[in-house]
């Protein structure tokens, strides 16, 4: 995995001091928080070495929207003692699946975004477009996949065609298709933005 460049962001808080009503500006370095979050970014081989049970989902997570947040809220509700692992599609895989104008945010930014979520325990970058290798190594206890990728639109439900990675799941694993109303997607967001120009 490529080394992520360390960045320092500055946040300015303005607080009123009640004793003399003077406003004071305090500069806070958030680099500690960023570095703490980046400890969640690890390799798939490192995950293999852990003896944890995993909830796993994956995606591009290009522009975070309400559908993503709903998914993570659901994951939080079933998490219990499991570790939550998120696979992020590399820029190469994203271009292959979504087109040359994607991703909007590069893989380093997307890793940072997901690592910042409190629900997430680990996040890794992957270059496997169908996740067969990922699932065979990770062996998640619970595997969650979005309806948009699990079921091909307008076609009969053919899990072997749309989900070749399922053959790598342990027999005891639970496979969940997470459904929303179908209108919450980064692609739809981008189309909506373009239509307003």
What does this structure look like?
This protein is an alpha/beta fold and 197 residues long. The chain has one domain (38-195): 3-Layer(aba) Sandwich (Rossmann fold). The chain is built from 9 helices and 7 strands. The protein has a 5-stranded parallel beta sheet. Strands 1-2 form a two-stranded antiparallel sheet. The longest helix is centred in the middle third of the chain and has 13 residues, at 66-78. The protein starts with 9 loop residues before the first strand and ends with a helix. The relative contact order is 0.16.
Give descriptors for this structure.
197 residues, alpha/beta, Rossmann fold, five-stranded parallel β-sheet, 7 strands, 35% helix, globular, disordered N terminus
């Amino acid at each position: 995995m490529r080394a992520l460049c360390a960045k320092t962001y500055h946040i300015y808080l303005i607080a009123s001091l009640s004793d003399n009503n003077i406003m004071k500006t305090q500069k806070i370095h958030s680099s500690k928080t960023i570095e703490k979050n980046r400890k969640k970014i690890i390799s798939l081989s490192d995950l293999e070495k852990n003896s944890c049970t995993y909830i796993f989902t994956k995606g591009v997570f290009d522009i975070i929207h309400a559908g993503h947040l709903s998914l993570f809220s659901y994951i939080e509700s079933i998490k219990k003692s499991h570790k939550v692992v998120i696979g992020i599609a590399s820029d190469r895989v994203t271009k292959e699946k979504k087109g040359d104008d994607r991703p909007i945010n590069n893989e380093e930014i997307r890793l940072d975004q997901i690592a910042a979520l409190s629900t997430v325990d680990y996040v890794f970058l992957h270059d496997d477009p169908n996740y067969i290798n990922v699932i065979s190594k990770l062996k998640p206890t619970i595997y969650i996949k979005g309806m948009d990728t699990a079921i091909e639109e307008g076609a009969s439900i053919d899990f072997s065609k749309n989900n070749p990675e399922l053959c790598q799941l342990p027999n005891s694993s639970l496979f969940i298709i997470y459904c929303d109303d179908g209108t919450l997607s980064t692609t739809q967001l981008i189309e909506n933005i373009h239509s307003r120009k």
